[in-house]
Amino acid sequence: MTEAGFFTRRFGAVPRAGTDAVVLVHGLGLSGRYFVPLARRLAARGAAVLVPDLPGNARSRSVAARAPDVGQLALALAHLRRRLPPAPSLLVANSVGCQVAAAFAAAHPRMVSRLVLVGPALEPGVSAWRQCGRLVLDAPREPFGLLCLAVSDYLVTGPLRCAASFRHALRDSAGAFEAHLARVRAPTLVVRGAGDPLASRAWTRRVARLVGDGRTAEIPGAAHAAHYSAPDALAALIHEFTADGPGGAA
């Protein structure tokens, strides 16, 4: 279905006033399809889950004439959130989607109840070549089904747009990303797969320290896309995280 002008999948309950919706934010050049295993598990716990293809990506490719930057994607999330009943949302983001989620949470603090950052990328100060090398290292650690899905999404989004999105993300990581994190006040859980070569343990701990209320968790046996390879483990972490105070959603 289409929400806020771009394609969005829905799982579980219908969002209603006074109850958090869960919004899952995909990474660079991808669609929300690789979040489906996690979305189904969160929906089974009673959550209303939305999984958009952000403008310029996959099934929302035609929504944007060119690859949007991080700020424009955060603005698109705000448009999506305004179409939901009045209540803050739990955001779960992966990889470069964490930069989008951080920009959104910094600009719209009242729209975010809690934040879950899975394998936050890109790490500031790491060159484009090293980032690409880390991605190559990650590929054999991921399930084959995810690699097929990712290749399909990259082809639909298009290599030129993926390259432009990568440049936007690098620019954001070199400047605005850490500033956005420092303005996040929502309770934040930073998760990494124990085998993730892109989001190092030191970097995830730094992310948790930068936000106003952060904590970390690690999933054994998972790599960069822990939400796909270990959805049950991540759903359990999210449930524990959201159950210890106001704003529980999963």
Quick tags:
250 residues, alpha/beta, Rossmann fold, 8-stranded mixed sheet, globular, disordered C terminus
H and E order: EEEHEHEHEHHHHEHEHH
| Name of the CATH homologous superfamily | Alpha/Beta hydrolase fold, catalytic domain
Query: How much helical structure, as a percent, in the residues?
Result: 40-55%
Looking at the overall shape, the CATH architecture is 3-Layer(aba) Sandwich
Per CATH, what is the topology?
Rossmann fold
Q: How many separate domains make up the residues?
A: 1
Distance linking N and C termini: 22 Å
Sum up the overall morphology in one term.
globular
Beta-strand content bin? 15-25%
CATH level 1 name: Alpha Beta
What does this protein look like?
This protein is an alpha/beta fold. It has a single domain (2-243), classed as Rossmann fold (3-Layer(aba) Sandwich), CATH 3.40.50.1820. It has helices spanning 36-44, 70-82, 97-107, 128-138, 144-157, 159-174, 176-183, 201-210, 226-229, 231-243; strands at residues 2-3, 6-12, 21-25, 48-52, 89-94, 112-118, 188-193, 214-219. It has an eight-stranded mixed beta sheet, with helices on both faces. Helix 1 links the parallel strand 3 and strand 4 (48-52). It is globular, with a radius of gyration of 16 Å. The two termini are 22 Å apart. Mean pLDDT is 93; it is low at 246-250.
